[in-house]
Amino acid sequence: MNVVVVESPAKAKTINKYLGPGYKVLASFGHVRDLPAKDGSVLPDQDFEMLWEVDGASQKRIKDIADALKSSDGLILATDPDREGEAISWHVLDVLNKKRVINGKPVKRVVFNAITKKAVLDAMAEPRDIDVPLVDAYLARRALDYLVGFNLSPVLWRKLPGARSAGRVQSVALRLVCDRESEIERFISEEYWNLSAILKTPRGDEFEARLVSADGKRLQPRAIGNGDEAGRLKALLEGASYVVDTVEAKPVKRNPSPPFTTSTLQQAASSKLGFSASRTMQVAQKLYEGVDIGGETVGLITYMRTDGVQMAPEAIDAARRAIANQFGDRYLPEKARFYSTKAKNAQEAHEAIRPTDFDRVPDRIRKFLDDDQLKLYDLIWKRGIASQMASAEIERTTVEILADNAGKKAGLRAVGSVIRFDGFIAAYTDQKEDGEQSDDSEEGGRLPEINARENLAKQKINSTQHFTEPPPRYSEASLIKKMEELGIGRPSTYAATLATLRDRDYVTIDKRKLVPQAKGRLVTAFLESFFTKYVEYDFTADLEEKLDRISAGELNWKDVLRDFWRDFFAQIEDTKELRVTNVLDALNDALAPLVFPKREDGSDPRICQVCGTGNLSLKLGKYGAFVGCSNYPECNYTRQLSSEGGAEAESNGLNEPKALGADPVTGEELTLRSGRFGPYIQRGDGKDAKRASLPRGWKPEDIDYEKAMALISLPRDIGKHPETGKMISSGIGRYGPFLLHDGSYANLESVEDVFTVGLNRAVTLIAEKQSKAAGGKARGAAAALKELGEHPDGGGAITVRDGKYGPYVNWGKVNATLPKGTDPQAITVEEALALIAAKAGKSGGSTKKAPAKAKTTAASAKATKTTAKPKAAAKKPAGKTAAKKKSAE
């Protein structure tokens, strides 16, 4: 018997069926060890020695593999066919060697690009050794990410309070988003006009032609810059006669795009399906690992982490057969198509993402897939089969028209296209049994019959005003495309990098666009000012290229680390002398449009409008940055640094207090103000003035005197409890709206309830709260949102639940919070098992029995050293971030 190690339990189950009784397939559940998230895990002074640690959950996985090896003939490492997969195999083998359980037994590495019986058996017939250069590239990347993260992040914490972290790829991606926001802020809109004519042929057909030349000159785009010029040209066209100068019909071929890579799949899924990058990868992972198709579990697509665009020869042959069968011979080009990528630094060792069987048309397997799986599979199938189909044949007609008004001439142009043969476009429409296609289907606008030298009748002249628009904010798809073009990051890192930016609150997503938050822009400005080199696009791309050369065996990985660390460490050391005033001066200049937006009255935006003499500047507080006056404490003006920029705060009128009226009891003035924690109501002045923050959902522009009085008057007395005689009041606290009675609290559903709830309802809510408390629980067990089945180790079912702090996975007494942004209905059993294993490992618990706690032995707690000595040191305070199961950057 041979022991086979794969990454996931779902894959293990499927592959065990393919291989039969002579093999035992076990799952590693991703990486079995990682660098501890603490100081000293990478030691540059000791030739970049790296100290690895096996967590509690992985200890059990390794023990299962080691126990199985004792009675086996050999070990086969069959983890994923990429750098991370190679590293996992290396880690497993290194740990087993340290446990001395290999004992001379043969160890082989196999890789397969698809989880089908043929692909697996073919791979087993061609084993190889572990790819050492690929492992070296992993070690270099892991060490670099650690050195940057665990040395640069503490600098941010000391010099820029409120910042969360920095990363080698993460920070450069953030810079792209922030740079685009700066472009938008600097953009000055310009006016321009477009003119066109609605003309009629002698046969009575109308069409539109646009103005392209006048006064003997060709008009460049946006050349008509004002209404006067547009009016002059419109008058010329209104009184002109029109004749067709030339008609040119030109055949054009449009070729299909190559099959998907990781990044192009993420881009297409974002634009066509609205999927985030992480959601795309989750669904693709399931399609790759296997779906039950009528009693047989089979992988539907090839491996989904790749930047290769070519398909294997046998896949091309299968696609061509499917094209002939499903569309007809006319849709089959004479020769197969071959593609090469244009992406910078692309490594094409793997196939593109394609269906494992082109005969599995999406409609035929619809009943076996959920909605998201079907949508993504449909996208992959169509792109894959279209890539080998015939070109679309299009006839593009261009008509040049002369306008003459008493010798004043102008030129107009009309363009239209007709698809004469749809070719690969047929894959994106309804599949046809006979391959027939109408010969006159349109692409874009279609022109009527127009002949040269014939006169045309003017029907209408259109003159439309436009304004240039700033470049759009990045979406996830366009940011991934830009990163790929620049050579920043790799296919397997994009989704994780974007997730990190969201989790750190450096960016938010609004209408599918990435909006940099104030915190993210501060971090970027700081890094650009004091770590310029390490957020430069070319430097990051060059480092990625060096990592690729390591994987190709062209560079020594430790030489690359030495070159990087020498300069980076010197830069870190230089920041020790950096004073906060230096930081603030640099940020004030770099973020001037954000911090000091222009004022409508033209006054200096850096002068405090409250005291009139102080200078406004960024200030750094415990909770991050805000804008304050230099005359503090005499002038206590502060303004929150808005995520949308200082301009928003200006437009809300909050750069100076807004008077709302006087309190009828105290006579003190009510004002609407903005502080470092957001807008608030204040009654009176001085240290004893009462203040009340605006509740979530209340906008400053909607606040009037009545709302301000209601808010500043809280808590509100509702009435005395009929049984106790004690007052019931309502208010807004740290945890939201509440009722208070005799020292006990009950939650209210909304802020509005605070001002409207009556005595009867209040008494009922308090009674319900007391009833729950009397039952022994202030909060009932969360209802299950989704059942995932029994845990493979026993101990009960795995469920997805919604708790006070968000959705989580539950198994016995183990509760593992879902990562931010994860759809609880989309979580798979494999993902749940990994989260449970990680949670149990962090708490020292065993995943065998949920209720029990495992004892941590001295051996399991001790960090192990790599035989390759891939170690590097971070001599800065390490954060408390838990070690990841799989490296993202």
Give structural notes.
Mean pLDDT is 84; it is low at 431-444, 643-654, 776-781 and 843-889. The protein is globular. The protein folds into 4 domains: 1-130 and 792-889, Rossmann fold; 139-183 and 475-581, Topoisomerase I, domain 2; 191-255 and 393-467, Topoisomerase I, domain 3, CATH 2.70.20.10; 264-386, Topoisomerase I, domain 4 (Orthogonal Bundle), CATH 1.10.290.10. By secondary structure, it is α+β, with helices and mostly antiparallel strands. It is built from 24 helices and 34 strands.
Please give the largest β-sheet: 6 strands, antiparallel, barrel
- State the CATH architecture of the largest domain: 3-Layer(aba) Sandwich
At the first level of CATH, the class of the largest domain is Alpha Beta
Helicity range: 25-40%
Distance between the termini: 38 Å
Write the topology of this structure:
Blueprint: E1 2-6, H1 9-19, E2 23-27, E3 42-43, E4 49-52, H2 56-70, E5 74-77, H3 83-98, E6 107-109, H4 117-124, H5 132-159, H6 170-186, E7 191-200, E8 206-214, E9 217-218, H7 227-238, E10 241-254, H8 262-273, H9 277-289, E11 291-293, E12 296-298, H10 313-326, H11 371-386, E13 392-405, E14 408-421, E15 441-442, E16 455-467, H12 476-486, H13 494-503, E17 507-510, E18 513-516, H14 518-530, H15 537-551, H16 557-574, H17 580-590, H18 592-595, E19 616-621, E20 624-629, E21 638-640, H19 646-651, E22 658-662, E23 669-675, E24 678-683, E25 690-693, H20 705-712, E26 716-720, E27 727-733, E28 736-741, E29 744-747, H21 751-756, H22 759-774, E30 784-790, E31 797-803, E32 806-811, E33 814-817, H23 829-842, H24 858-861, E34 864-865
